[in-house]
């Protein structure tokens, strides 16, 4: 019992360290991408932290099964290279005992993966989509700052002061430049200046820049004339980015219970994709145990390279089957469920049958009579 607790704790410890390190690395990459988008103005700076939070379940989708796999291999390989495995087997701990311990760890990881994949991931995807849509229609999230130029389609806007605390973002000292191309008159530039303005959204969720009491200067490059006119109220439309639609994004934010009830083929494919990492926890636990039974002279990381290659092949096969299902090339059932079945038959079972067994030489029993005679 003590040895089993020791093996269990060592596997969980290695898995936790691997998950923390890899999660931190991929999360930093996500933060860098979001910051670059915020710097270019495609997303507001205020929503970056929330988008980072909603991207975490997507990272854990693959990292939970992978770190379980790596944790078992690294932990048991270390025990084999340090000859701890020899001592454990000499006191009666069999290969079945190692498989049972790894199955318990795989069950815990599978539960965490199921919660993440079936609940947290669709919820985070839905909230991320809602946040992106609301940031486009919320004036407080528009990329308008004090003392900076902002481009909105044909308009270039400079605002001296922006009151961000206000509900509609009150503006002071606003300057707008617009170039107009006419077939008859050629290029015409308009320069609009106003002491104050604000942002508003109409009933159709369209954004407008409203300016009060200002002047419009129109310059005709063909004739060289300059016109000046005064206005009491003018509204300038602010264009919004077109929504980018992906082929498989319609069902990513739908709850799993709704996918189960749906008869849509795309919904069933998305459901299979969410269940795939749960199967992966058990499959790679069964693969990791025989791969970690190495010769002490080989080193603790001798099988890590081929093990990672098997993991990559598994997820590449899942992606391939997913594309085939979306294109209608293969039937919905068995669909992606065929990938774990093939890995069990072609990889897990042969590895467990052909895993090297550690043999121990039996000690010779000395005869008491012979020892007394000598």
UniProtKB/TrEMBL annotation:
It holds the Pfam family LptF_LptG. It comes from the Bacteria. Its main location: membrane. It is a multi-pass membrane protein. The keyword Transport applies. The keyword Transferase does not apply. Keywords: Cell inner membrane, Cell membrane, Membrane, Transmembrane, Transmembrane helix, Transport. The chain crosses the membrane at residues 12-32, 59-77, 98-121, 271-289, 301-321, 333-353. It is found in: Cell inner membrane. InterPro entries: LptF, LptG/LptF_permease. Component of the lipopolysaccharide transport and assembly complex. The LptBFG transporter is composed of two ATP-binding proteins (LptB) and two transmembrane proteins (LptF and LptG). Part of the ABC transporter complex LptBFG involved in the translocation of lipopolysaccharide (LPS) from the inner membrane to the outer membrane. Belongs to the LptF/LptG family. This is Lipopolysaccharide export system permease protein LptF.
């Amino acid at each position: 019992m003590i040895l089993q607790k020791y093996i269990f704790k060592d596997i969980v410890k290695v898995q936790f360290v691997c998950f923390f390190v890899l999660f931190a690395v991929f999360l930093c990459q996500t933060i860098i991408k979001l910051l670059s988008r915020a710097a270019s103005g495609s997303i507001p700076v205020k929503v970056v932290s929330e988008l980072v939070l909603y991207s975490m379940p997507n990272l854990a989708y693959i990292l939970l099964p992978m770190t379980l796999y790596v944790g078992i291999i690294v932990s048991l390989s270390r025990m084999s290279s340090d000859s701890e495995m020899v001592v454990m087997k000499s006191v009666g701990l069999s290969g079945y005992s190692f498989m049972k311990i790894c199955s318990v760890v795989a069950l815990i990881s599978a539960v965490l993966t199921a919660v993440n994949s079936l609940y947290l991931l669709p919820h985070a995807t839905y909230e991320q989509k809602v946040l992106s849509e609301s940031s486009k229609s919320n004036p407080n999230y528009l990329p308008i700052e004090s003392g900076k130029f902002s481009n909105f389609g044909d308009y270039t806007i400079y605002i001296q002061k922006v009151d961000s605390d206000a509900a509609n973002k009150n503006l002071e000292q606003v300057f707008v430049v617009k170039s107009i191309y006419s077939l008859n008159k050629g290029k015409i530039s308009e320069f609009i200046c106003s002491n104050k303005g604000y942002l508003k959204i109409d009933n159709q969720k369209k954004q407008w820049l409203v300016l009060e009491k200002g002047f419009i200067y129109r310059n005709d490059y063909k004739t060289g004339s300059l016109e000046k006119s005064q206005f009491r109220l003018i509204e300038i439309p602010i264009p919004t980015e077109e929504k980018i639609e992906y082929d498989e994004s319609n069902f990513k934010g739908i709850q799993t219970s709704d996918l189960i009830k749906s008869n849509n083929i795309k919904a069933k494919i998305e459901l299979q994709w969410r269940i795939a990492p749960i199967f992966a926890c058990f499959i790679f636990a069964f693969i990791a145990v025989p791969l970690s039974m190495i010769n002490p002279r080989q080193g603790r990381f001798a099988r890590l390279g081929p093990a990672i290659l098997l993991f990559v092949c598994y997820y590449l096969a899942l992606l391939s089957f997913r594309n085939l299902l979306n294109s209608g090339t293969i039937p919905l059932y068995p669909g992606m469920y065929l990938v774990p079945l093939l890995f069990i038959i072609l990889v897990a079972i042969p590895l467990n049958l052909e895993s090297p067994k550690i043999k121990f030489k039996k000690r010779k029993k000395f005869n008491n009579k012979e020892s007394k005679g000598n």
